[in-house]
Structures are given as structure tokens and as C-alpha cells.
Automatic annotation (TrEMBL), chain A:
GO MF annotations in UniProt: oxidoreductase activity
Family to which this protein belongs: Belongs to the short-chain dehydrogenases/reductases (SDR) family.
Source species of the chain: Guopingia tenuis
Record's keyword annotation contains Hydrolase: no
Protein's recorded name: SDR family NAD(P)-dependent oxidoreductase
Keywords of this entry: Oxidoreductase
InterPro entries referenced in this protein's UniProt entry, alphabetically: NAD(P)-bd_dom_sf, Sc_DH/Rdtase_CS, SDR_fam
Gene3D superfamilies, per the entry: NAD(P)-binding Rossmann-like Domain (3.40.50.720)
GO cellular component, one term: membrane
Pfam families in UniProt: adh_short
Automatic annotation (TrEMBL), chain B:
Keywords from the named record: Oxidoreductase
Organism encoding this protein: Guopingia tenuis
Domain of life: Bacteria
Pfam families referenced in this protein's UniProt entry, alphabetically: adh_short
InterPro entries associated with the record: NAD(P)-bd_dom_sf, SDR_fam
Gene3D superfamilies referenced in this protein's UniProt entry, alphabetically: NAD(P)-binding Rossmann-like Domain
UniProt name for this protein: SDR family NAD(P)-dependent oxidoreductase
Molecular-function annotations in GO: oxidoreductase activity
Length: 264, 287
């Protein structure tokens, strides 16, 4: 099993890579952070004795992605699995952020994901099943003031994953949309979750469990995976309550949280 | 002023800082390691206020990640070559953390295991030539909590069912095994390793962990002793002319430790750690 993972040097991408390595899959890792990428590649080879390749790539740069695929073609690598993990967010209101930073959210979370997915689908191993995950977010279930661009970019991935799943239904490919709530990836996130108080704690899901279950689900079939019972409940609320009301409620809560967080 | 150098990790707060201050006052040359440059600076100032004559240097390194450990080991090596005849008198592996959630280091290693144990293993391994030259001591910051647990050999990073306290306890048991393994291997070359149980100490170890650990720590912390009290045990070990005989010390007295601390387990852990760090047994000593 050859697996491509984007955003593999940090957070969920790294834990996904660990989970895949544990299952004995061979990995092709990309990330923007070169030192981190080398560290995880070597770490996984030592821990699990798998074959891993790593190439630094800025997915928002078309030329960089072309170079990545040229490298893949040169070694004639074919893939069975693609985990689209790379994504970013910058906290704060739309007007408080720099113009290009806002645009970058969309160009990485959406445009870059399409670029990679298209390229890898053309390089899938023939006559074998293919599996792919799009890491969306619980935020994709609601319009989210103060995280407006991020939530909308994740909604794009969510809808796209469901639609692509139908397109590939008869081509032996599974497409899973993963919509996690908060996950503790580093110390700043720990602080952010603490700032959210009760809601932060109940929407937080253990990352290692998410990684394991995501891969299990993807191997079983297409669909959506929302980790955590409380998060599933919230996503149902998001569907039955009018979207304007949801937006107002979310605004009220995030405004409060972000003020508290900024004080930390 | 003696010409003995002591390296202390996690020396910007809590037990590490008080130990650094105590040893600096007693005339040891102290090299402290901390994660943030700002806090290193503050710690150095704190020590120099108490002991203006002291010879204190601080190095910045994020010991979670192996490349940082390797870098700081080289820096220490250079300082020792320049100032202390390449001799290291004591290495105090004190840096430690508590985490509520499963998180990983850059190398894909669970963070409590990475910092509390593996960083200490790698740093000690890289400084072995200096320790042998100085007939040095290695002191681990241990914990009473290493008792009543085994090493989970089949899933040492606890990826399957992560429990923060299990991971903490296991990392401290691994620290004991490191000391045991070092004694088995290098006692003949003059190195001796110890584990100090500092007791329950008022430090900020649990404050940044978030989640359950933060809540538990909130209730336990007020019953703790001051870090200056537990620093005494470290000071006592460094002050002895000849190596003390025990392995596990609490309040300057040798204490009983877990039955899991066996040569066999230590061998197994050393083998695994060499694999995780990409190092080889005895490669440093052969040089």
C-alpha cells in the first residue's frame, strides 16, 4: 500500500503518518517544513521499518507541485491512498486579517487540495482499490463568523468529497470526508481549547483515535466521519436550525472565546 | 572555585532552577538548558543575584526533538573542551513534562516519552565521552509514580489507549531503567547513574498540560514542598567525594524502587532506544 500524505510534518498529518506506518504502509510525505519532514520520515523508518519518501513542497505553488509529480513519475510511484491533511487557519475577524493571508486559506485548503487530488488520482495503481480522505472540519457544518473563510473553505472540501465519492463509486474508490472538532496538536491549541472552557473540552477528540478510526472507515467505504458523539449532535443541530440563527449563535460564542483567548 | 561542570536540563524553573542555583552557589560551573531564550536569561539573572561569583551559562534547546538534542550536545561538548578539560562531572536529566493528550514530537514520538525519557537517553549517550573523562554522575529526575506499572513493550507510545498518567509513569520508569542500564554498562568506566525522587513539589509542570492533568494538578500542587527542598538531594549526590552506592534517592536517603527495574528490562529498553535514536551501543566510547 503506497500512501501520499500532505501536511505530514505536523499535527494530524504526523499522527496519520504514524498510524499508516503502524499498519506497515509505505509512505510518501510532503510538507512545507523541510526539517520536520526529514525528522518524521527518519523517525518512522526507525520505529516501524517501513519505506518512506519525503519531499518538501509548497502546495500553493503550481511549479512546486509540478516538480513533485515529476519526481514521482521519475520513480514511477503509484498510489493506493491519499490523505489530504494540509490546511491552515488564521484566527480573527475578516477585516482584521491581511488580504493575502485570507486568500491563502482558500488557496491552500481548497485549490492546493484539488491540485494534489487530481494529480494523485491520475497516478493511482491500476486495477486496485483507491482510498482518499479530505480533512474537512466540524466548522464545515455551520457558517462561522470570525472563522468565516476557514469554515467556508472546509465546507467546500466537505461537499466536494461527497460529490467526488459518487463520481468514483464505480471505479473502486472510496472517498471519506473527515470532520473533526478540536484536536490537541500543540501547546497553543491546548491553550485555545482551555479558553473555550466546557465546550472546548467536549468537542475535543483524541487525535490518535481519530487517525485510527478514519483509516478504518475509509477502508470500509465512502461517506462522512465526524469523531465524537457531542460533535455529531452539534452537526445535526447545524442541519435542522436555520443557518442564519446558527451564524448568530456561533458569533456570540466565538466573540466571547476569542476575547478570552487573546488575554492569555 | 572548583573546576567541576554540571549540566542541568529543564533549568529555567522548578526543581531544575533551584538545583542550578544551589550547585552554582557551591562553586560548580553550571550549564543550564531551557527551551525559551527569554526564560533562560531570567534564570541566569536569578542565579547571579543569589551568587554573583557563580559561573553560569545557559543554552537554548527544545529537547522534544532529537535534532535539538544533538545540537545542544555538540554545544556542551565544545564548552567543556574549552573550559573544563573536556570533563563533565554531572549530567542532571531533569527536563520533564506532563501532557493530557496524545501529542507527538517532530520525530513522531509521544511527547512525554520523548522528553522525560528519550531526550535524556540521547543526551547522555552523546555526552558519554565527556562523562567518562570526568568520571561523572548522571542524575535522573524520577518520581514515586514509577512504581506499580510495567513498560508497555508492544505499544510503548501508548497509541492505542492513551492515558496521560500511564504515559507519565511509564516515562519515569524508563528513566529508572536508563540509570540501571548505565550502571550495568559503564560503572567500570567510572560513571554512576542515580535517580532522585523529588517528592511532590510545587512546580508548574501540570499547569500547561490542560485537560485532566491540569485539574488533578490544581488539587495536588498546594500539598507540595518547595523545589529548593528537593534540590538538596541533587546537591548531596554532587557533593559526595566517592559515588554513593544506591540507585534511587529520596531526601538524601537510598530508597526502595520498583521490581520492574531489572537488567533485562534495561537491556531491552536500551536496544529499543538505540533503534529510535539511530545510535549504536558503545559507538561513543570507542572514539
Amino acid at each position: 500500500m503506497n500512501v501520499m500524505i500532505t501536511g505530514a510534518a505536523g499535527g494530524l498529518g504526523r499522527v496519520m503518518a504514524i498510524e499508516c506506518a503502524k499498519r506497515g504502509y509505505n509512505l510518501f510525505l510532503t510538507d512545507r517544513n523541510k526539517a520536520g519532514l526529514e525528522a518524521i520520515k527518519i523517525g518512522l523508518e526507525r520505529q516501524y521499518g517501513i519505506i518512506a519518501a519525503a519531499k518538501k513542497c509548497d502546495l500553493t505553488d503550481c511549479g512546486d507541485v509540478d516538480a513533485l509529480f515529476r519526481e514521482i513519475d521519475r520513480h514511477n510511484i503509484r498510489f493506493d491512498m491519499l490523505l489530504n491533511v494540509a490546511g491552515i487557519d488564521f484566527e480573527g475577524g475578516f477585516q482584521d486579517r491581511e488580504r493575502e493571508k485570507v486568500v491563502k486559506i482558500v488557496s491552500l485548503n481548497d485549490a492546493a487540495t484539488l491540485r494534489i487530488t487530481h494529480g494523485v488520482l491520475q497516478r493511482r495503481r491500476e486495477k486496485k482499490p483507491f482510498y482518499t480522505v479530505f480533512v474537512s472540519s466540524l466548522a464545515s457544518m455551520f457558517p462561522m463568523p470570525l472563522k468565516a473563510t476557514y469554515a467556508a473553505s472546509k465546507r467546500f472540501l466537505y461537499d466536494f468529497a461527497l460529490a467526488l465519492g459518487q463520481e468514483l463509486k464505480h471505479e473502486n474508490a472510496n472517498v471519506l470526508a473527515l470532520c473533526p472538532g478540536g484536536m490537541v496538536t500543540n501547546e497553543e491549541v491546548t491553550a485555545a481549547i482551555e479558553a473555550q472552557g466546557f465546550f472546548g473540552r467536549v468537542t475535543t477528540v483524541p487525535m490518535e483515535k481519530v487517525a485510527r478510526k478514519t483509516i478504518d472507515r475509509m477502508l470500509r467505504g465512502s461517506g462522512t466521519y465526524i469523531p465524537g458523539g457531542f460533535n455529531r449532535f452539534l452537526s445535526v443541530l447545524g442541519r435542522i436550525i436555520p443557518r442564519r440563527t446558527v451564524a448568530a449563535a456561533v458569533y456570540w460564542r466565538w466573540n466571547h472565546t476569542q476575547k478570552k483567548w487573546m488575554q492569555l | 572555585m572548583s573546576d567541576k561542570t554540571v549540566v542541568i536540563t529543564g533549568a529555567t524553573s522548578g526543581i531544575g532552577l533551584e538545583t542550578a542555583a544551589l550547585l552554582a552557589k557551591e562553586g560548580f560551573r553550571v550549564i543550564g538548558i531551557g527551551r525559551s531564550g527569554e526564560r533562560c536569561h531570567a534564570a541566569r539573572k536569578y542565579i547571579l543575584e543569589a551568587a554573583p561569583e557563580a559561573d553560569v551559562a545557559y543554552l537554548t534547546a527544545d529537547l522534544y526533538h532529537q535534532r535539538e538534542v544533538l545540537r545542544v550536545a555538540l554545544e556542551i561538548h565544545d564548552i567543556l573542551a574549552e573550559k573544563g578539560n573536556g570533563e563533565l562531572f554531572a549530567l542532571i536529566n531533569n527536563a520533564g513534562c506532563a501532557q493530557s493528550y496524545y501529542t507527538t514530537s517532530e520525530d513522531g514520538i509521544e511527547r512525554q516519552f520523548a522528553l522525560n525519557y528519550l531526550a535524556a537517553f540521547l543526551l547522555t549517550h552523546k555526552l558519554l565521552p565527556d562523562l567518562i573523562k570526568g568520571r561523572g554522575r548522571v542524575i535522573m529526575t524520577g518520581s514515586e509514580s514509577h512504581k506499580g506499572i510495567r513498560v508497555h513493550w508492544d505499544d510503548i507510545m501508548l497509541t492505542h489507549r492513551y492515558h496521560p498518567l500511564t504515559a507519565y509513569k511509564q516515562s519515569k520508569l524508563c528513566g529508572m531503567l536508563l540509570a540501571k542500564g548505565l550502571n550495568d554498562r559503564y560503572a567500570g568506566m567510572g560513571i554512576r547513574a542515580f535517580v532522585v525522587d523529588p517528592g511532590l513539589v510545587k512546580t508548574d509542570i501540570g499547569d500547561k498540560a490542560g485537560g485532566i492533568v491540569k485539574i488533578v494538578w490544581h488539587f495536588r500542587k498546594p500539598f507540595g514542598i518547595s523545589p529548593a527542598v528537593s534540590a538538596q538531594t541533587y546537591g548531596w549526590i554532587c557533593r559526595q567525594e566517592t559515588h554513593p552506592a544506591g540507585l534511587y534517592y529520596c531526601k538524601c536517603q537510598p530508597c526502595k524502587y520498583s521490581r520492574e527495574v531489572t537488567g533485562q528490562n534495561a537491556d531491552r529498553l536500551f536496544q529499543l532506544s538505540h533503534c529510535l535514536c539511530g545510535t549504536e551501543q558503545n559507538s561513543e566510547v570507542a572514539q
